[in-house]
């Protein structure tokens, strides 16, 4: 993974979700390096929590492929290779293409309108270079596509895959120009959905995730 200047784990709150996000972001950006031990007691002290939520956070990080653990041993940061990351993004691109195609066919008038309004509203985040806020909006944008597909099984599959890629998808917004590029790619997806053009929506969503994959690969190991 890409190496950056090392820094201490900050207290991001007391919830498991907050700890997972904080630790995952540090792993992806190289503040925590492959092979480094993640001691439960030390983490509990740094986040000012008991060891129980720390264990749960480490389990979730393990499910995301960012942490490995052997019985009776401390968890360690794993080595996420570029090849494995690419394979996950390849699956994600296919799933998102399906969702966009179905959304173009099945979204209600109200859903299309909400998608359009929120998309245009996100432009202010791009202009403000508000990477964290845009990352949060980006998650909501894609969730709207997943729900717009109106297929519960596909929704489950795509959200599970997204959860594993979430740290990398957030990290890409640290790169120069990614906010505006993301907005422009969203614009193509939204336009296709508003026109009920299923093929164009599918192609735009696939290309969008492929671009995200290329941007995120910088955070993986060779």
From TrEMBL:
<feature type="domain" description="HTH gntR-type">
    <location>
        <begin position="13"/>
        <end position="80"/>
    </location>
</feature>
<dbReference type="InterPro" id="IPR011711">
    <property type="entry name" value="GntR_C"/>
</dbReference>
<protein>
    <submittedName>
        <fullName>GntR family transcriptional regulator</fullName>
    </submittedName>
</protein>
<dbReference type="InterPro" id="IPR008920">
    <property type="entry name" value="TF_FadR/GntR_C"/>
</dbReference>
<keyword id="KW-0805">Transcription regulation</keyword>
<dbReference type="Pfam" id="PF07729">
    <property type="entry name" value="FCD"/>
</dbReference>
<dbReference type="InterPro" id="IPR036390">
    <property type="entry name" value="WH_DNA-bd_sf"/>
</dbReference>
<keyword id="KW-0804">Transcription</keyword>
<keyword id="KW-0238">DNA-binding</keyword>
<dbReference type="Pfam" id="PF00392">
    <property type="entry name" value="GntR"/>
</dbReference>
<dbReference type="InterPro" id="IPR036388">
    <property type="entry name" value="WH-like_DNA-bd_sf"/>
</dbReference>
<dbReference type="InterPro" id="IPR000524">
    <property type="entry name" value="Tscrpt_reg_HTH_GntR"/>
</dbReference>
